[in-house]
Model the fold of this input.
Amino acid sequence: MQRRDLVLSIILTVVTCGIYKLFWMYQLGNDIAMLRGDDQPKPMTDLLLTLVTCGLWYFVVSYRWAQLLNDVVGQRGGRVDSNFPGLCLVLAIFSYGVVDLALMQNMMNDLIEANSRGQ
Done:
């Protein structure tokens, strides 16, 4: 797992017309699964389903991954926001999935920093 720069990720997503978003999505899904220590989520399956359904599956991904990430935060003693998955879903619908990915990445970056400090 590595900390990713949000601004750079958003810029790369815009410059590459969304291609970088697919790579970013895959990396984030792998990081969530690694933190959870199980096989959830399955980023390759979710990525393929997103492509096959012309992006519709991404709405499910956005909600479910935010929920899984929220669970990890709660297990590690962090503040859990029960509205976070719903917020990510709404943002995915209205922002083409960039802002919700940025929010999830920000939460992941916070977890990585807390992990590196030993908290």
Q: What stands out?
A: The mean pLDDT is 92.
